[in-house]
Amino acid sequence: MKIALGSDHAGYDLKMYIRAHLEAQGHEVNDLGVHNNERSDYPVYGKKVAKEVANGNSDFAIVCCGTGVGISIAANKVKGIRCCCCSEPYSARMSRRHNNCNVLALGGRVVGDELALMIVDEFLATEFEGGRHERRVNLISELDEY
Ligand code: RB5
Fold first, then answer.
1. How many C-beta neighbours within 10 Å does residue 36 have?
2. Which of 36, 44, 52, 101 is least enclosed by beta carbons within 10 angstroms?
3. 83 an active-site residue?
């Protein structure tokens, strides 16, 4: 899969840990920064990465900040993006099955490295169920116009 990555300084270490994991699995990773621990602004990277998914350059994206919250809010402002902030694998799985999420957000100050990888693996391994959930996701898409 083609997977875009992004973070601010507070999510940088976790992003790099996830990046190594994804590359070892053979995914094509597009790391859009940040590229060091210097203070940075999460909305910039949330937008940058989300646009990669919205324009079809990447299948999915994973974004990290301190909590995962700020960067998920930023990513969700981009049309076509459904980003969920997850701290455990169940929500990550259901965000794919029921919500067809295309961006996963994680908090570098919230989840440990190994738990983060479980969340990432669950997210990427799970398919959208469609059916009755399709209509609901379409209703979410309509909100892109507001
Ligand atoms: C940075 O200190 C922190 O506010 C940011 O990484 C994030 O947690 C915001 O939601």
1. 8
2. 36
3. no
Look up residue 78 and give its DSSP letter.
S
Distance 12 CA to ligand 1 centre (A): 11
Distances (CA, A) of 47 to 61, 96, 120, 131: 11, 21, 20, 30
Alpha helices in 2-41 (DSSP H): 12-24
What is the model's pLDDT at position 135?
98
Task: List average pLDDT for each run of 10 residues in the chain, which is 146 residues long.
Answer: 98 98 98 97 98 98 98 98 98 98 99 98 98 98 95
Per-residue pLDDT at 39: 98
Give CATH for domain 2-145: 3.40.1400.10
- pLDDT, position 133: 98
Residue type, 103: V
What residue owns the CA closest to ligand 1's atom 9?
70
By C-alpha distance, which of 16, 15, 21 is closest to 107? 15
Q: Which of 12, 64, 65, 111 to mutate to test the pocket of ligand 1 (most atoms within 8 A of CB)?
A: 65
Look up residue 60 and give its two tokens: 């999915």
